[in-house]
């Protein structure tokens, strides 16, 4: 009887975990494994691009790839995990609750926006965290065209100055001009609780973000927090009122709630702490990967970030190690020493840095070309070709 590797999630980490597991099975000429991916749709949603226009097209189908690699697709949404019974209950496309058992589980359910208890936030703020919510936001921008031109209509407030907030804020001037025309005075305001722009980044990178923001007309409210959101705008905790018809929440993410069903230590973002093979220490049959895993990238104290850059490699290692544990093959300790940052800055261009110290290497158009190559090509699934896909899924091959 075949041993079953069940991968929950078809995002960057889940998709690559499946391909990597299939690769190792073929390398060992084994028909011993059954590899399945459980997800609502057989597609990869290109989440790093959800700040862009035409978000509905930012998906990549996986049906042909899975078929080529003998990966089974199970349509459904996971709802409950029982590590003692080695079972996952999921709701299928007909709304029925169904059971899937496993020998190895790879948890690749990703993350979601963290929404604190701010008055009016759930009722009046948009987000671009998931495909559906990004589509709602895009439709809202389209609908603004039919409203009278007022300061509130022409102002967007972005709550949170992290990676997503910066990319959205610097892209918005172009998106607003495309709708309202070049002659309409628009305003984009980033509300950031920290004391400086881009506080988590190096000084050199912060300077680039600040310069780009100034050139694009993006305003920052530093040392500021949201007190309340309503249909007409936001009120800050310092009493300032910003009139706006469009408030977007980008402040923070946390691991999918399914992680809470598994015994284990978690970090502040609800990610499960894993060992170097990406196993949950209390449950060695369960591997966490992508945004569900708190994993060390090297031997000097760095940990994987909740980005597709790390999710892709985490997935390759998790799939390999899950399969290796069933094939009696040597596993690979997860390592991802190289780290880069490539931040889109709208019409200004982009900025590319290398290393955890974030040394700026490229700016403006040169960096923009690299950003487009990464987000439009490099992070997409491989071709539905066994040789090509398996070569790309090698955990030890260089990604960036």
From TrEMBL:
What GO annotations for molecular function exist for this entry?
NADH dehydrogenase activity
- List the EC numbers from the record: 1.6.5.-
User: Which keywords appear in this protein's UniProt record, sorted alphabetically?
Assistant: FAD, Flavoprotein, NAD, Oxidoreductase
Coiled-coil stretches are none
InterPro entries, alphabetized: FAD/NAD-bd_sf, FAD/NAD-binding_dom, NDH-2
At the top level, the lineage of the source is Bacteria
Q: Boundaries of each FAD/NAD(P)-binding domain copy?
A: 4-313
Q: What is the similarity comment for this entry?
A: Belongs to the NADH dehydrogenase family.
PANTHER family given for it? NADH DEHYDROGENASE, NADH DEHYDROGENASE-LIKE PROTEIN RV1812C
- Descriptive protein name: NAD(P)/FAD-dependent oxidoreductase
**Native source organism of the sequence:** Lelliottia wanjuensis
